[in-house]
Design goal:
By secondary structure, the protein is an alpha+beta fold. The protein has a domain of about 120 residues: VSR Endonuclease (Endonuclease, Chain A, 3-Layer(aba) Sandwich). Helices cover about 55% and strands about 15% of the residues. It has a four-stranded mixed sheet with strand order 1-2-3-4, sandwiched between helices. Strand 2 and strand 3 form a beta hairpin. The radius of gyration is 33 Å and the shape is elongated. The chain starts with a helix and ends in a 12-residue tail after the last helix.
């Protein structure tokens, strides 16, 4: 076979190859176009109906919140098995129930050393810069010591905290300190695995000299 014949053969093979490739791409484009047209037609004929959230009455919302709380409480107890609590979480503030982990903290760390009348769960503060804020526990000792106890979960208070919430948390703690409160923060793991150490730290705080108020009286 001479060079000219070989060249013609190669060119023929290349032409056949590119022709088949073009045919394949053309079929793919047509198929994709037909699929898009079908989606558009289907969406026009059968538009997606957005379900409207029902407007709940205050009584219905309260019932739903209670169901959600009880479901989360059962899940938490099944996961951690904390044992029986001393209250249902509404003893201090009926409007804002303490979470199971907070009741655990109260039972194992606060109750053993703090008089019951000095404990205020879900205590509401009105601070000049960060506004209305709630602490897990506020302790007002007969001797004048004022202590805030916070139970911080790693996921909610560290891992997934955004910048705005991070800044507000720091601002709130600074305001409470200037107002005369001793702020103690414990992690969930510290409370669960070493409650004795947490109790000792809290006990030392109750023995400190009362601090003078410098901000506002709450």
């Amino acid at each position: 076979m001479d060079n000219i014949s070989l060249l013609n053969l190669i060119l023929s093979v290349l032409l056949i190859f590119f022709f088949l490739k073009w045919q394949k791409e053309k079929k793919h484009s047509q198929s994709k176009y037909l699929q898009q047209q079908f989606r558009v037609q289907t969406s026009v004929e059968h538009p997606i109906q957005k379900t409207k959230q029902p407007i709940l009455t205050p009584e219905e919302k309260e019932a739903k919140d209670r169901e959600d709380y009880e479901a989360k409480e059962k899940e938490f107890i099944a996961m951690h098995n904390p044992g029986p609590f001393h209250c249902d979480g509404k003893a201090c503030n009926p409007k804002h129930r303490c979470l199971p982990q907070e009741r655990w903290m109260c039972r194992d760390v606060i109750y053993p050393i703090i008089p019951r009348e000095a404990i205020h769960g879900q205590y509401q503060f009105k601070l000049p810069y960060s506004g209305s804020r709630r602490a897990d526990f506020a302790i007002k000792m007969p001797g004048g010591q004022r202590i805030v106890v916070e139970l911080d979960g790693y996921t909610y208070h560290a891992k997934e905290v955004d910048k705005n919430k991070f800044n507000i948390n720091l601002l709130r703690q600074n305001e409470l300190t200037l107002e005369g409160w001793t702020v103690l923060r414990f992690s969930f793991d510290q409370m669960k695995e070493n409650s004795g150490q947490c109790r000792e730290i809290l006990k030392q705080a109750t023995l400190m000299e009362p601090r003078k108020l410098r901000f506002i009286n709450s």
